[in-house]
Amino acid sequence: MHEIVTLQFGSQANYIGTHFWNTQESYFTYGKYEEESPVDHDICFRQGRGADGSDTYTPRTIIYDFKRNFGTLRRLNELYDVVEANGGDYAAQSLWQYADCILPHLRRNGTPSQHHNPPIAASEYQQALSAGLTPPRLTADRVRYWSDYNRVFMNPKSVVQIYETELNPGQTAFEDWTAGEELFQSLDREEDLFDRDVRTFVEECDQLQGLQILTSADDAWAGFSARYIDRLRDELGKLPVWVWASCRGMQGISAAAASRRAVNKAKSLVEVAQQASLYVPMHAVPSRLPTWAWLEPESAWSTAALQVAALETATLPTRLRTAAGGVGQSGTMDAMTTELDLHGEQRIAELGYQARESESSGAHVNGVTTDERLRAGQQDNSDTAADRAATCDLFPYEDDLSAQVFAQVECTRGKVFNDVEAGNTTGARTAQGVGRRVSRYSASLQFPMLDSYPAVFKFGSHDNSISAGKVAMRSNLQASGRVAGWAHALSAQARRHIEPEERETIGNALSEISEAYGKGGDSDEDWD
Hints:
By secondary structure, this protein is α/β, with parallel strands linked by helices. About 35% of the residues lie in helices and about 20% in strands. The chain has helices at about 10-25, 80-85, 90-95, 95-100, 125-130, 175-190, 195-205, 220-235, 255-275, 300-315, 335-340, 370-375, 385-390, 415-420, 480-495, 500-515, 525; strands spanning about 5-10, 45-50, 55-60, 60-65, 105-110, 110, 160, 210-215, 240-245, 280-285, 350-355, 365, 370, 390-395, 405-415, 425-430, 435-445, 445-450, 470-480. Strands 11, 14, 15, 16, 17, 18 and 19 form a seven-stranded mixed β-sheet that branches. It has a six-stranded parallel β-sheet with strand order 7-4-1-8-9-10, with helices on both faces. Strands 2-3 form a two-stranded antiparallel ribbon. β16 (about 425-430) and β17 (about 435-445) form a beta hairpin. The longest helix is centred in the middle third of the chain and has 21 residues, at about 255-275. It comes from Carpinus fangiana. InterPro entries: DML1/Misato, DML1/Misato_tubulin, Misato_II_tubulin-like, Tubulin/FtsZ_GTPase_sf.
């Protein structure tokens, strides 16, 4: 067993994480007459004991967010609440554990008093799940919090609620890098976060494969992540740590907000990527969408769905059972990291993917049927214009599409893609004729369309209002020269707004990243 522990930092990350855990829950099979799932659930789920003594199975995850963003998700749920397990009055008997306290220690005339926010009503979707009924169709206006579409019970140790009182006075928006650093230092000073939150999950693993972190790259959670990973490295050494960093769009925001986001992304690229084994930035609102993709850019529920389809497909090999019976090819985080890092200094990867209807539909991509594409051999050249047009590119830098590719890891799922060559292949070539290393993993398991998932896929005559069914996918993680272009662009955007004492350090680091990916960085004069 090669377990993976997941950490989720902030609201953007938790929208993605909720989709991710819902998908993992859908892979469970029950009963002796059902075929065994190709996914090894012990990798991402842990066994435990509920309040009534029954066995539990909950995600190996730790969720950090402000209390206001958890919605109706409580630290203790039906599995762990002794009062609810015994049919007691939750509100009367355990209010002190769950109340939304604004000023819990305010004293009036020497008498302690508590002030509570009004309780948040459960969404219709959650009410239906609790009653065992078919949930109503979700829409963007019905999703208020990421917990509104959560289908998985969490262990109490997984839920870390942060109160606004932890922030510095006068801080309203959690956007500045330094605010994230200060929050981590404040929380870690009061109680060692690794010992309190992470150590139990790590030590109960038989053979820890690595940690994956869901976070954001352009707000204060990026600073929080940087300091948290420093702490992880002190404790866990060179254990693989994959960071999936979400980036919001720049449309409709002020110049000051755009500058702040650019500075945060530049610092995240330097500080987080330097400590991570693999750093994958993911644009929440890609500048160009393929014909099969659709989203509501203002809805985090919708944008996270487009991101998680790529993330979940790219990481699928790390959760598969050993290859047998055509189930698929398993891989480890360590092996996949090595396959991507061709030159020993490339920790930043682009992420993109393609999606098609189940093989029975004969889906069309740009007017060409899947079978015609396979016969033409187009699938072996990911640099063709048709292939780029059919790919949802999540990399937050749209230029240099023909940049040199050094290494890539391709994961396919579903017969539509797996009729191509399976296994690991080397010697593929880019459009420029330069050799690169390509590693391929395949699995028969397709991506499930759940009732908690928005309609972000359109195929042919279907607008994919489907709330059930499966989708074939091919994800592509690659290290290429586009990273150098992004680092150069970030330096131009951020250098005017970075504090003078940091300017030279950040500038030199971005230059080193540019050089590592095949381009020269900014000159010293640019940062003077």
